From TrEMBL:
Phylogenetic placement of the source organism: Bacteria, Bacillati, Actinomycetota, Actinomycetes, Micromonosporales
Protein name per its UniProtKB record: Aminotransferase class IV
Key word Transferase present: yes
Pfam families: Aminotran_4
Gene3D superfamilies, A to Z: 3.30.470.10, D-amino Acid Aminotransferase, subunit A, domain 2
GO MF term set: transaminase activity
Family stated for the protein in its record: Belongs to the class-IV pyridoxal-phosphate-dependent aminotransferase family.
Domain of life: Bacteria
UniProt entry keywords in alphabetical sequence: Aminotransferase, Transferase
SUPFAM superfamilies given in the database record: D-aminoacid aminotransferase-like PLP-dependent enzymes (SSF56752)
InterPro entries according to UniProt: Aminotrans_IV, Aminotransferase-like, BCAT-like_C, BCAT-like_N, Class-IV_PLP-Dep_Aminotrnsfr
KW Transferase (keyword) present: yes
Organism: Micromonospora fulviviridis
Length: 262
């Protein structure tokens, strides 16, 4: 773990625990780089402007990430967190000087077994930003897993599906892929899959999705940089169909995307 290229102090990291204000992106480091790296960096720049009202030096972020990546053997998960250790809860309006924290961990073994999800009413604060405020999402995931499910699927106050705790969800209906129209994080992997869907001629669109109004023949999958593409077996008591042909094509196309070097 490095903060601006050097090991962080306990005081540096205390801000993340005590103030918990910042944003991040997590990428899967492969041999040669990262799929969709440019999109991840664009999101960091956008979120930094939203949270801190400053322009993030993306070239510097790349150099710091490149330095950290050179110290590990891929595959690995690399997280880039942007925060200001000097920003306080009492006076968060102070002019910010964001710093860049890089940490790397081994990539988890790929899991392809279908997930069983529990639907919970929850909306992340400022859902368009990948911010560090994960308490609500982790709490709902914990409750779902302790109830015997694999993970949690969020629905908003109007009953519309939005996203999962740390992933996007897509539904396969009538030969199309439906992404939820409710407010959610625009995931990088989902954006890459949109490009793939266009290439293979599968229509994709954003649709208001209510679980009680989904057609009987419906499939679903979750996706993120860490998960990749994983099918959904059921949501609460409702069993879903599986679309192995389409998901296999998406996996193959996704894995064929050439990694971008830092």
């Amino acid at each position: 773990m490095e903060l601006d290229g050097v090991p962080p102090t306990a005081d540096d990291l205390a801000a993340l625990a005590l103030v918990n204000y910042g944003h991040f992106t997590t990428v899967r480091l492969e041999q040669g780089g990262v799929r969709g790296l440019g999109l991840h960096l664009d999101r960091l720049a956008r979120d930094c402007a939203v949270l801190f009202n400053v322009q993030l030096d993306i070239d510097r972020v790349r150099r710091l990430a490149r330095r950290a990546a050179a110290q590990v053997n891929p595959p690995a998960m690399l997280r880039i967190t942007v925060f200001d250790p000097d920003l306080s809860v009492v006076h968060p309006a102070a002019e910010a000087e964001p710093r860049v924290l890089i940490n790397v961990r081994p990539a988890p073994a790929a899991a392809s077994s279908p997930l069983r999800l529990h639907a919970a009413a929850h909306r992340r604060g400022l859902p368009q930003v990948k911010h560090v405020g994960l308490f609500g999402a982790v709490r709902e995931r914990r409750l779902a897993q302790r109830a015997g499910f694999d993970d949690v699927l969020f629905v908003d106050a109007d009953g519309q599906v939005s996203e999962g705790a740390t992933w996007n969800v897509g539904f396969v209906v009538g030969g199309e892929v439906w992404w939820p129209a409710a407010d959610c994080l625009p995931g990088i992997t989902a954006r890459l899959l949109d490009r793939l869907l266009a290439q293979i001629g599968v229509p994709a669109r954003r649709v208001p999705i209510r679980l009680d109004r989904l057609p009987a023949a419906c499939a679903a999958f979750v996706t993120s940089a860490g998960v990749g593409i994983r099918p959904v077996a059921a949501i609460d008591g409702r069993e879903l169909t599986i679309e192995p042909g389409l998901l296999d094509r998406l996996r193959a196309g996704y894995e064929a995307i050439p990694p971008e070097p830092f």
